[in-house]
Amino acid sequence: MKRIIQTRLFIFMTLGLLSLLIIVYLVMAIGAKRQARTIISACLKDLSKEVTEKRDNYKMLRKTADSGTIAKARILARMIQYDPEILKDDARLKELVSVLNVDSICVSDRDGILIASSEPGFLGFRMHSTEQSAEFMPAIRNKSFELVQEPQERGIDHVLVQYAGVARLDEPGIVQIAYEADNVFDLSDIELMRDILKGLPIGHEGRFLVLEDGDDPVVFASGDPSENGCHLSELGFRRDPVLPDSVFIRGGAYFYQPVKIPDEPRRVLAVMPKGEVFAARNRAMLFIFGIYVVFFALFFLLLDLLIRRTVTDRFYEVNRALDKIIAGDLTQTVNVRSNPEFLALSDGINTMVGGLKKNLTDSRRRVKRENELAKSIQQTLIPAPGRRFAQFDRIDFVSSFMLASHKGSDVLETFVTDAGRPGFVMVEAIGDSVSASLSMMKFRAIFRPCVPPASGPLDMLNRGMEIFKNEKVFKNQFLSIFVGFIDPENRRLDYVNAGYYPPFLRRSGGTFEQLRDSVGTVFTTARPVELRQESITFGPDDVFFACSNGIFSYSDREGQLFTKNMLLSSLNASKTDSAQDLIDGVMTCIRGFSGELPPEDDVLMAAFRMKS
To answer: Could you give the CA distance from residue 437 to residue 431 in angstroms, rounded to a whole number?
Structure first.
């Protein structure tokens, strides 16, 4: 009763809290967005005003600087008119560079060919040969020609300079002076915008972004200098698919609004971190939530005191007894008899516990019998350890088997076909106890007639597949199989791996490596499977090792499992190429790791090499 009342009140008050929080959230979110737009609008007015003023100031200063530059060019032209010999004296030209406070001087003849220059390497340059220098060619025909270029790459060597030029007064030609990049009075629009935006944040951490449009817009200028020149994709810019006025930049969530700066053709965005925009809303939500939690706690404390007075201690006594029973103590009984209701409850629990004890005892006995039966069946499937194929002098083949107490069922069979080819098959049934063991017995009975006429592992499995399809025991059974046919004459192993744990191979002078590409589809008749045959050609000292994945069910006293790296270490530590030594080395490593603890799954191992 107490739980029911508390649960219903909790649900009711929780729904009330959620409703209140949703309403407050929506109202304050709308207000926060309006305030953000007001802040953006005010900052935009300041930005527009500052951009206009700085552009006008820059134009005026640039006009003054260009007038001074043209005046220097006129003075140089007048000096050449009065004393043409200046053009033949390199020392005087360099002196004029210093007097006029410029970086270089160039003078051409009536054909636009430089005949004098403070830079000796420029002599003979044809002014009409590049787009930059050709702009001064009209000075040859027009005595009133004057031009101050924008800073740009010089046509002769692609260095960034600013040229100014006038017509020669003594004869047709061009007089030029030049400032190199470090001495040019130039404040580009990009520098101006970046300088303004850097000092004009929106709120505390908001900023304006001016974008160059394109498939992936570039940040022309930003209030955060680290973003200047970056593509939006580099900043992780993306719009929120749910909220149209939200974007993500560098993983942070922002409120954004497109704005317009007068006389600015580029797209401009105003962004403010959502944490700043909705700070007041978030504080209010936390305050309301905290007040409600305190009210919740006080209310439920009073409710608990009230309900406790109506519930006897006997109820808790029953609960304590039930907790012990649930924890596994089936010797526990409930003996609360203060009233008829608790009497009936106690008797019902005791009856239930008595039945549970009986069922558990029967279940343990049944499981024990099944495990004993499975073990006896599996004993008949275990191959004798030691060497195989004694009739083949060239084959050194050894197998070993460790039986688990209850899980899995593995089989190793060796055979010789009618064509005289030796072979082996390693099978593991996916399942536990008796069913897996019976499946293995059935597999052996079906498998043996398929061996003698088989021409190879794939042919043998295909023959078996046709028989397995008609056997009900294999309708929903999955087997992992490794079949190998050995060709001693050609030192070759033809094999099919149908879901078996990938074997290992050590080439002469190397270390063991796992054949990861050899794993195929698990063998089953529940659905069509594709099997593929592969081959390995053995060198004189090559060694092959295969095992079931039960080898990794060994554990130590702390519960740590045997690993593939441990297996590889034991394989590579073998002092000889003998298959028996290899198996013995693995077993020694396992015993040192797990002690006397048995595996949780059957372990089957086989190793062989082809003698010289």
So the answer is: 9
Q: Which residue reads 């737009």 in tokens?
A: 37
Count H helices and E strands in the chain, helices first: 12, 24
What's the first-to-final CA gap in the chain, in angstroms?
85
Per-residue pLDDT reduced to its tens digit, 224-251: 888 888 998 888 888 888 888 898 998 8
**Cβ(444)–Cβ(380) under 8 Å?**
no
Contact yes or no for 287/299 (Cβ under 8 A): no
Q: If we measure between CA atoms, which residue out of 573, 584, 508, 514 comes closest to residue 545? A: 514
Give the residue carrying structure tokens 């944490």: 275
**Secondary structure (DSSP) of 70-109:** HHHHHHHHHHHHH-GGGGG-HHHHHHHHHHTT-SEEEEE-
Angle at 170 between CA 167 and CA 172, to 5 degrees: 50
The number of C-alpha atoms within 13 Å of 540 and in the hemisphere containing its C-beta is 2
φ, ψ at 440 (rounded to 5°)? -70, -40
d(CA 248, CA 239): 6
- What is the greatest pairwise CA distance in the chain? 134
Say how far residue 76 (Cα) sits from the centre of its chain: 67
How many whole angstroms from its chain centre is CA 32?
36
- CB distance 314 to 336 below 8 Å: yes
Which of 21, 19, 35, 39 lies closest to 282 in space, CA to CA? 21
Flag the least confident range among 401-405, 497-501, 593-597.
401-405
Predicted local distance difference test score (pLDDT) of residue 273: 92
Task: Band the pLDDT of 319: cuts 50, 70, 90.
Answer: confident
Q: How many Å apart are CA 45 and CA 255, to the nearest integer?
A: 19
